[in-house]
Amino acid sequence: MGFFRPSSRDDAFFQLLADSARQAVAAAEVLTELLASDAAGRERILPRLKDIEHEADEATHAIIHKVNSSFVTPFDHGDIVELAASLDDCTDALEQVGQMVVLYRMDGLMPDVTRQLEVITRMAALTAETMPRLATMKELPEYWVEINRLENEGDVIHRTLLRDLFGGAVTDPIEVIKHKDIIERLEQAADAFETVAHRVETIAIKES
Amino acid sequence: MGFFRPSSRDDAFFQLLADSARQAVAAAEVLTELLASDAAGRERILPRLKDIEHEADEATHAIIHKVNSSFVTPFDHGDIVELAASLDDCTDALEQVGQMVVLYRMDGLMPDVTRQLEVITRMAALTAETMPRLATMKELPEYWVEINRLENEGDVIHRTLLRDLFGGAVTDPIEVIKHKDIIERLEQAADAFETVAHRVETIAIKES
Amino acid sequence: MGFFRPSSRDDAFFQLLADSARQAVAAAEVLTELLASDAAGRERILPRLKDIEHEADEATHAIIHKVNSSFVTPFDHGDIVELAASLDDCTDALEQVGQMVVLYRMDGLMPDVTRQLEVITRMAALTAETMPRLATMKELPEYWVEINRLENEGDVIHRTLLRDLFGGAVTDPIEVIKHKDIIERLEQAADAFETVAHRVETIAIKES
């Protein structure tokens, strides 16, 4: 590292990655609003979540198209594609949770699900703040250490939820099926943010 | 592009990819037959589905072996391997649905599952028609646009099925577990065909 | 192949891969012990399983770091990273089974689950024996043929378990949900060992 990173081409990549991360933040925020609403409100909010997922898809597509049609990229082609794909996985998982909550007509959602989503929202915000720093490669270890800490925090909530769910907090088997699905998809969202951090770390190691 | 693609080596790759896509078509057709049969018929048909899955495995293996032992390939080595792997995922998902239907002794399968499979069968047929066109790179955008449209069509059926399933169409919790598994594995099959289309698009962009 | 493979750098890679495979063996052994214990014993044993999973994570991390910071690697960079990642997936899946058994407060686990784990333990042991042979590339086909055979053996047990589970062996729907999850995660562990074997085969083909 240490050399000057100038070109506007590079900037366009970091911009697109930051856009994609901001879609994940928006998805987490709209999902939070959806969870806090009643059935009618949820039906109304869901299309906004789908729009965000669709925009994230297009952003990912734009990144991959740009990588495949560029001769020079700021990092290894494959690393950028994988980073973009893992950012998209974050938004996808969050949108799927919103869909499940509506399709399953969830009523009486376990309160800790909101705590699980709060941790994920912080992971999303931190990821979006970090993407522009790929241009300078500064303060990246602070990011991945904090993501790792948040992932552990979310994992404790996830395990507590499962322990309670199967410990009698929910007794109707069909409600158990629904809760389990939502809790696990949120955990997959958290894992997706951790994967993003792993890929940033991989890029940072190669650049150092 | 625009340059002449001659060699018989190339042709062998397109042939193997087309073979693999035809296994996915065969899997969709045999699975359709299986779903329409009674319990005894299903037990009799399942081995045919397993044979197809096994042949698709061998075809994939042959492609990966050929890529890894070839110095020259028509496209990037990694892109061919990923395309072959995603074609194999299509057949795998369809075979798993057949297994579930038999192992779970499904009785009274929700009728829309058949509609979900019909859309997938059309995705498979279109994919098989398209593979040979990789030799000339002609009319590929028509293919991925139509796959995308079919995936959306299948997704609407998938969501309707889940909404009905959890809306009281099936009341026995164990039957809900079984249905959910089958419906979601079929959705994964549809996603696998979409992934194939994404990979074809990636190859097309690089070649253009 | 046939050329002399000397350097100590190479040896370090094979050593790290063998370490990672030994973590998978340890995970299978501790999980076997956990399954054979009562509830209190399981709570006591689970942290050991988590420690193993954590060490495997660090081993994988060390391999990826070493690959990304090395100019010369014994095989293709990407192939080593994927091999390390798939070894880690084996240990992860086993640790998740242990977690589920404890979180779900499993009581009256179907006896064949132990048979399913026995096959996986043999896959792990064979994988750990094989990793050092990557240095000489000798007797590798015997390894992947045997892994394939074991995977088929495990698959028969897996299918029998599902057939029994949905055939009335377990009647409480919540117990069905729990069993299904554990049985399928074990099947994913078996698949992960098969993926390791596929990646060894890919490396062997490229080297031949």
UniProtKB/TrEMBL annotation, chains A, B, C:
Pfam families noted in UniProt: PhoU_div (PF01865)
Coiled coil: none
InterPro entries: PhoU-like_sf, Put_Phosphate_transp_reg, UPF0111_domain
Domain of life: Bacteria
Family from the record: Belongs to the UPF0111 family.
Protein name: DUF47 family protein
Species assigned in the record: Janibacter terrae
Organism taxonomic ancestry: Bacteria, Bacillati, Actinomycetota, Actinomycetes, Micrococcales
